[in-house]
Amino acid sequence: MKPGKKSFLFVVLLAIVLASCRDQSAIVDTNIELDKHNWSYAEKVKIPLSIESAEIPCNLYLNLRHTSDYKYSNIFLLIHITGPDGKKSTERREFKLALPDGEWLGSGSGNLYSYQILFKEDYKFPLKGKYVIELEQNMRDNPLDHITDAGIRVERAM
Q1: Does residue 63 carry a pLDDT above 80?
Q2: What percent of the chain has pLDDT over 70?
Q3: Residue 90 confidence (pLDDT) above 60
Q4: DSSP state string for 101-140
Q5: CA 99, CA 97: separation in Å to the nearest integer?
Q6: In angstroms, how far is the first alpha carbon of the chain from the final one?
Q7: φ/ψ of residue 13, rounded to 5
């Protein structure tokens, strides 16, 4: 095998190993595409997950994508967490998406901006078992235009 091919093969294998290491900490990392890039009050994004131990702290992130035509610098969401015992907790959160001058804070690709925003750090789920996290948009506009995807990432805190 030529030296150039060995180097290329090494780089590819290293990238695969590094990507798989990152994903091992993720319990769930899911995005749901929103119909016609409009998010209505009635369309809650539901993410099921399974927690194996109530002793392991987790970091919870909002995954969000919008187009450059989104007209606000923030978004308000209701975050509902339903536990295996059926108990539901709800909190209203504001997520900042742009600077005061209008520059988007997310990573951009063409007309699309992506965010992964931490909203609970070192959080311990109270019980082991199956949970459902629901995201509900809580802005004045209904539907909220130019939101393409919403989701959740839950990972073991390191």
Answers
A1: yes
A2: 85
A3: yes
A4: TS-B-SEEETTEEEEEEEEEEEE--SSSEEEEEEEEE-SS
A5: 7
A6: 40
A7: -65, -40
